[in-house]
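Is beta-D-ribofuranose placement plausible here? Inputs below.
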Amino acid sequence: MDNKKIPVILDGDPGHDDAIAWIIAAAQECFDIRAITTVAGNQTLDKVTYNARSIAALLDLDVEVAKGRELPLCSELITAPAFHGESGLDGADLPEPVKEESKLSAVEVMAKVLSESDEKVTIVATGPQTNVAALLLCHPELKDKIALIATMGGGLVNGNRTALAEFNIAVDPEAAYIVYHSGVPIQMSGLDVCEKAYITPEEWEKIRQMEGPVAEAVSKWLDFYFIHLKDLGWKGANMYDPCAVLSLAYPEIFTIREMNVDIDLSGEYTRGMTLADFRGFNKTNCKAVMDVDREKFVELIIKACEKYSKEVHHG
Ligand code: BDR
Ligand code: CA
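Reply from A.M.:
I modeled the complex. Tokens:
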């Protein structure tokens, strides 16, 4: 085993940008993907789990895919069909899943990966943080085995689901509260960076021109995903979840600032808000990713897609 690799568990709700984030993650030499776990968010749990298994088939990824929490800890589930369609991943035909889903739950698989690992493991959480919170509650003894929780979630200035709450946190604010109060290191890619991290239709045209099923799926997903984003006035498709993956692999192209972030649970207008303490008086609990060199970011996405297309070309 190459011990320079970063062992990761990919936890998400695919979801177009989750899917692209996982495709990017699987293309990086620096990651060792130990498991994929799913959580209800962009669509219901059954749909996102099916999508996760199809993505694993598309990438020929032989890792355990485990189903996580069906509902947020305390709230009704909110899904996002306007962005992700009825399947949660509309726009491209995917291969039938090859591997059955794990007989273990997401929390059990996460606990197994953590306890069996000699090194600490990073959890890349690109959906609501329900599974991660459940893991922390059920297995506090494993906290020390988590190197980092690299999340896409929140926004220090604005929200998207509501004026102040970003979707992943808005779906399950109590879960995010548990995560942010756990003492486990967090790297937060929120809307601050993600809304700057877009790819334009001209840029993903390069992906469309590549050979192979991965490039085809990515370009078709981007077409679909952009329909709604364009209506909202965005210049391109915001690559929210890829920020969580790429800020881990290439921190040098991002601006990252340490601070204390809390989660509001009770405000009439602010429930699910990530509240940043910019004063710097309190001890910090998170590295907040604030900005990115967008051109380099897009180059990395294109390069990841190219890797799959070269594999097709060279057999
Ligand atoms: C987040 O919400 C979901 O729709 C996306 O997959 C992303 O994780 C952006 O707010
Ligand atoms: Ca997501």
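Short version: The chain is about 40% helix and 20% strand.
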